[in-house]
Amino acid sequence: MPQRRCLLTGQRADAETLLRFAVTGDSVVVPDPAHRLPGRGLWLAPAPDAVGLAAAKGMFARAAKRKLQVPADLPARSQDAWTAHVAGQVKKARQAGLVLADAAADADTVSADANVLGLGRLALKRSPLTRRAVADLALLARLVPPA
After folding, report:
1. What DSSP assignment string belongs to 68-126?
2. Residue 126 in contact with residue 109, Cβ under 8 Å?
3. What does pTM read for this prediction?
4. Whether 122 contacts 112, CB under 8 Å
5. pLDDT in tens, 50-101
6. Contact status, residue 21 vs residue 28, Cβ threshold 8 Å
7. Nearest 5 degrees, angle CA 95-CA 101-CA 105?
């Protein structure tokens, strides 16, 4: 797994454990939960206040080495984007028959906490899709402030 550096803390971590942001053609910072937008990406360790703190300190512009427009509602947009992304992954897993009705875990399943989506605990069959869904659920749980 490729390592990326958090622009706020400077620590290196696997890319799937960090939030990715991209810069649009008109220099606007946008969340990129699917890791598909073009460019190098700006990486941030997930925490409830990390996005707002990085924006306030000008860390996105510093990491991109150019002037950027950071929307005032970027923390809310980020949380919404990752929530929608993870909900889509869980939906795909359900459609593929990878979400089990009972939460009984065995060697061929993995358990994930989906409380941030209001789903409780999920039991998922092991596959590349569910591996990414579990990683993104964990990331989203760290991004969303505790209720």
Report:
1. -B--TTHHHHHHHHHHHHHHHHHHHHHHTT-EESS----TTEEEEE-GGGT--EEEEE-
2. yes
3. 0.83
4. yes
5. 999 999 999 999 999 999 999 999 999 999 999 999 888 888 888 888 777 6
6. no
7. 110
Q: Each residue of 97-138: pLDDT tens digit?
A: 877 765 555 656 676 767 777 777 777 777 777 778 888 888
Give every CB contact of residue 90 below 8 A, 6+ residues apart in sequence: 99, 114, 117, 119, 122, 133, 137
Cross-sheet strand order for the sheet of 42-44: 29-31, 19-23, 42-44
In eight-state DSSP terms, residue 45 is: -
